[in-house]
Structures are given as C-alpha cells and as structure tokens.
Design brief:
7 strands, single chain
C-alpha cells in the first residue's frame, strides 16, 4: 500500500488492492465495518487515487505519490521528478461523513435499500454543517508546507445548492485555510475548490 505509484496509475492500484482485500475471508465485512486494510483503502488510498485522477494528472502528470501510514499530519507524499510548477508535496485526507454513515452502510448491506430519504435542502444543510466541523477539526493542527487537504465525499449525486454551500464555507473560512496549498472536496467524478494558492 505504501509503494510509490505514478499519478496515472494510482487510482487503478487502489482499486486492485480493494478487490484483493474483498476476495479474502471476511473481506466484505472489513469494508462494511471500515476496519483493517479496508479502512486504510476506503479512507485514504482510494480518495487519494481520485485526487490523482481529477487534479494531479493535469497539474503534475510526472509526479509520484506514496501513501504514508502512521500518526503524521499527512497521509501521502508527492514527489516531482520534473519541475511541474506544482507546490503540492503532501496530501492530507478526510471524509465528509458523520456517525450516521456506518448505520446507512449497514442498512444498505442488510436490506438492499436505505429508508432515510432527505430533501435536497436538508442534504445540503447537513453536509454544510459536517463540512464546517471537519475543517474546524483539521485547522487545529500544524501541517508541512505544500500540503493539500482533500475532503472526500462518498455521495454519488449533489443538489444544485451544493455549489453555493461550498462557496459560502470557503469564503467564511478562507483566511484560516491559507495554511494549505490547496483545499478541495471531491467525489468520484467532480472536484470543488474551497481554497487554493494555485489555479484549479
């Protein structure tokens, strides 16, 4: 997991490792409960893979990324073999979720459906509160220069109000977010910028 991979191959490598873990006894249970290697893959390596795919492949296509397990204030390092202009040297990952996420996964696994359905406005308000809480927690730490903070959102679709919510939170906390080289939210297909010293 901590091997160095190019940004072009990182996402596929993370998927391959997910498939490998799922094929082991109790592998599916590990993913459901977010324990063991499944936790590291879901919470760190896969989101970093999407960041490589959506951002670094364009920003620094020659870069190589390596996951770093442990208690340091970053989850991965970025090595630039050529001067790409990118100043991102470290990646810190967090998820846009709360304590209800595990209950939702369990219900989906057991029943095949999730009964709790929220209106768009409720979804945006809830995610906005979680986003502000996640950022406040991250801002209480010291990070090495050149750190990109990425916030991974597992939701597949987003109401139109989501863009406005992100802009509002980014504007409100813009000064505090300056300690990062880049702050963004991403899912499997989209990336939203909250704060950046670069062009996104």
């Amino acid at each position: 997991m901590q091997r160095k991979y190019s940004v072009a191959e990182y996402l596929q490598k993370s998927w391959n490792l997910c498939a490998l873990v799922r094929s082991t006894p109790f592998g599916e249970e590990q993913f459901l409960k977010r324990i063991g290697l499944a936790k590291e893959l879901c919470d760190e390596m896969v989101p970093i893979g999407y960041f490589c795919e959506l951002f670094l492949k364009l920003e620094a296509p020659q870069a190589k990324v390596s996951l770093k397990l442990g208690n340091q204030t970053y989850d991965a390092t970025v090595e630039h073999e050529h001067d790409s202009g990118s100043k991102i040297n470290f990646i810190e990952v967090t998820s846009l979720e709360d304590q209800t996420e595990h209950k939702t996964r369990t219900e989906l696994h057991r029943n095949g459906v999730v009964t709790a359905i929220k209106r768009d406005s409720e979804w945006v308000a809830e995610r906005g509160r979680i986003l502000a809480r996640v950022l406040a927690k991250k801002l209480g730490k010291e990070y090495p220069k050149g750190t990109a903070l990425i916030i991974y959102c597992k939701d597949e679709s987003h109401p139109t109000e989501w863009d406005s919510c992100i802009k509002l939170v980014g504007t409100t906390m813009c000064t505090a977010l300056d300690q990062f080289e880049l702050v963004c939210i991403l899912d499997r297909e989209h990336i939203w910028q909250l704060s950046s010293r670069q062009n996104l």
